[in-house]
Amino acid sequence: MEPKFIPYSKKLLRGEELQNESIKHYHFMNNRRTVREFSTEPISIEVIDNIIMSASTAPSGANKQPWTFCVVTNAELKSQIRVAAEKEEYDSYNGRMPQEWLDDLSYLGTDWHKPFLEDAPTLIIVFKKSYDLENEIKKTNYYVTESVGLACGFLLQAIHQCGLVALTHTPSPMNFLCKLLNRPVNEKPFLLIPIGYPAENVTVPDIKRKGNDKVIVLYK
């Protein structure tokens, strides 16, 4: 296939304007928090579509875009997902997770109960595709985990940009989602993300993020 290129342009910022924009965006993103208590107020499917399509602009290996975003608003299906997830979470909190892991989670106040899976108006389940199927022929995808991880990062940013909140939930194992959502064999669950407005008077853990001296190594 011959490569084909098209012109690209965007507004460029420099100097003080660039500095101010970087500060503004950092403070905006630093205000993002994981929320575990959701309002039941619905979110329009048009908003969800736009958020997901923003996530789908993420870079991917060979532009394969190896992801599927399943959107669940049906109350009965959300209930089934909660039951299955809580079964896996109960087993994790009662034998699967080593004590060190449980200790690390203790200050967050989490346990195997996951009411947010029913309370949140929308669940987005992200699936990764190790390969595509075209007329029953396997087509390899590349850097699948990295690509889907980037798309999930874009998704969380888009959710925050819209003034909504989310939770990255990973009940393990997550194979029950393949069955409940009737996904094809080339798709594997990656993240389960409740999305919506925060519940009234919601609280979040009093955490501190690492400073730049802990996360940046500068080579001059």
Structure description:
This protein has 220 residues and is α+β, with helices and mostly antiparallel strands. Helix 2 (45-55) crosses helix 6 (144-161). Helices cover 40% and strands 15% of the residues. Strand 3 (131-134) and strand 4 (137-140) form a beta hairpin. The N and C termini lie far apart (40 Å). The longest helix is centred in the middle third of the chain and has 22 residues, at 75-96. The protein has helices at residues 15-30, 45-55, 75-96, 99-105, 116-119, 144-161, 176-180, 212-215; strands spanning 67-72, 122-129, 131-134, 137-140, 165-166, 187-196.
Poorly predicted runs are none
Overall helicity:
25-40%
Q: What sequence of helices (H) and strands (E) makes up the elements? A: HHEHHHEEEHEHEH
- Radius of gyration, whole Å: 20 Å
* Secondary structure category: alpha+beta
First-residue to last-residue Cα separation: 40 Å
Strand content: 15-25%
Mean pLDDT comes to 96
